[in-house]
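Chain A, query sequence.
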Amino acid sequence: MATEIERKFLVTSDAWRDHAHASEDFEQGYLCGDGPASVRIRIEGEAANINIKAAVVGTTRAEYEYPIALADAREMLADLCVAAPVRKTRHWVRHAGHTWEIDVFTGANAPLVVAEIELSSEDEAFEQPPWLGEEVSDDSRYYNHALAFAPYGQWKQ
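Chain A, predicted structure.
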């Protein structure tokens, strides 16, 4: 079984921007709202994939991802999604031997900025960069699937 071990944090400043070594625009939509898994279509620049991820809260989840034709992904995003697509720019930042993914959300989820780190085990040690804030790995509101249905911009702050 394919497994993702990921920790998610809020970001407290733009200090990471000086260290970003790459970035890519993402657009993703969901083909179902409820169930034991989320099924997502994602366009990353000029590539596309379908992703199936266990609908559980926490740092470790089953995840499967497969490439699909870009034209098919565009059609599915336009015609088959059950909520508005989530749009963001992902930036990659290396820090102390790990690569962080910083997602800067746009549209209905602006001004949310979230940092994620993928680990090889749940107890893997890592150094937290100074721009890292509160951990939200166990807060399902910050999952992209949840943001499609309840965008950050609509939360009572």
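The first strand starts at residue 3 and ends at 11. The first helix runs from residue 70 to 79.
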